[in-house]
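> example.struct
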């Protein structure tokens, strides 16, 4: 049974509306002022509210505005009861959040029809809200599944830490690191274009493919070969038009050489130095189109020697493409400055970075997945 709340300071109107609506099988509660009406709405969550426009104390517009700003009452259908019928007055009512109007004197057939229509819209809104909550639960489960696939932190023979914060919509970030032999470790981070499960599934496929070394005959020590093989395997024409960017590197802990290649991905940042005034910042990027865009795409390797007391950061663009409260977008250079500033701090360095990004972001959740790997070599 639908609950209907009537708010009107005229007792005769209350009695009339209750009589008509109760005959239609609705549960009706009537109050005579705006404050009590809001209290009843908060307590009972009516499906529909009929509220007089002109009342002592809170008028109908003020009641409507407060009801519509309560997230728990967002699906409640609000009808303003009024003798005002000018276009300007109706515009005021719509701006306050009113869904419909009934003009005095009340005509019974019109009242019944508008209430039926309002309740249909209320039910449709409830159904949509239920589906939205179900979808959000499924996306949360999907994010937890992705999180369960990611590697655990590593402390020997060097330290690898990571952070993964999925956006509300769930994106396509994924990363992994694993030993190729006793000396060489492969490290990569990828980001599939778009959001939702269609973006997540290719990321998981790549992770499983590389982790199991299912691409036979591939030299996993040669990053450019790995990217070329992925590009041949994941052409967007066969992957729901999804492409991805990736940074892939192989580090040899004996020679301290890092070999890397990238495909349209943000550069990795290597920071070396023993004092805050002597840091060396290297931007590790190679040319290459995102994986899946063009079958003939070429990838090349680059090399660098990792000095003592160095840290390597690999991340997705969600770490720095943040729209600030003033509407401007943060950038990579500013993000690198934050990484450089924490190079000589003690522990919880990634938490420091994430706290800064969270404070920078004016929204409740990040617009894109945010992933970051930190490798501390000594």
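> example.seq
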């Amino acid at each position: 049974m639908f609950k209907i709340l009537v708010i009107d300071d005229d007792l005769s109107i209350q009695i009339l509306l209750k009589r008509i609506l109760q005959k239609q099988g609705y549960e009706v509660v009537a109050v005579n002022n705006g404050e009590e009406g809001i209290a009843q709405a908060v307590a009972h969550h009516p499906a529909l509210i009929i509220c007089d426009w002109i009342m002592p104390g809170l008028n109908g517009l003020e009641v409507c505005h407060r009801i519509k700003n309560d997230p728990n009452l967002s699906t409640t259908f609000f009808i303003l009861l009024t003798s005002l019928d000018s276009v300007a007055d109706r515009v005021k009512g719509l701006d306050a959040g009113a869904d419909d109007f009934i003009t005095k004197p009340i005509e019974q057939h019109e009242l019944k029809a508008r209430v039926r229509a309002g309740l249909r819209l209320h039910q449709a809104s409830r159904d949509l809200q239920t589906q939205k909550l179900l979808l959000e639960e499924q996306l949360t489960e999907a994010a937890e599944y992705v999180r369960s696939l990611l590697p655990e932190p590593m402390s020997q023979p060097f330290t690898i830490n990571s952070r993964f914060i999925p956006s509300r919509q769930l994106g396509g970030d994924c990363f992994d690191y694993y030993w190729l032999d006793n000396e060489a470790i492969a490290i990569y981070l990828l980001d599939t274009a778009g959001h939702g499960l269609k973006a997540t599934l290719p990321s998981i496929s790549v992770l499983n493919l590389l982790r199991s070394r299912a691409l036979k005959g591939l030299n996993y020590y040669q990053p450019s070969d790995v990217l070329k093989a992925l590009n041949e395997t994941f052409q967007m024409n066969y992957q729901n038009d999804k492409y991805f960017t990736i940074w892939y590197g192989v580090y040899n802990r004996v020679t301290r050489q890092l070999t890397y290649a990238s495909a349209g991905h943000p550069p990795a940042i290597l920071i070396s130095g023993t004092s805050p005034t002597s840091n060396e910042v290297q931007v590790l990027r190679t040319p290459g189109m995102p994986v899946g865009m063009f079958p003939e795409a070429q990838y090349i390797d680059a090399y660098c020697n990792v000095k003592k007391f160095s840290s390597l950061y690999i991340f997705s663009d969600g770490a720095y493409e943040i729209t600030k409260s003033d509407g401007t977008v943060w950038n990579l250079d500013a993000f690198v400055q934050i990484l450089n500033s924490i190079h000589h701090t003690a522990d919880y360095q990634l938490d420091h970075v994430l706290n800064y990004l969270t404070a920078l972001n004016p929204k409740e959740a990040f617009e894109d997945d945010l992933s970051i790997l930190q490798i501390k070599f000594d």
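> remarks
The chain is about 35% helix and 25% strand.
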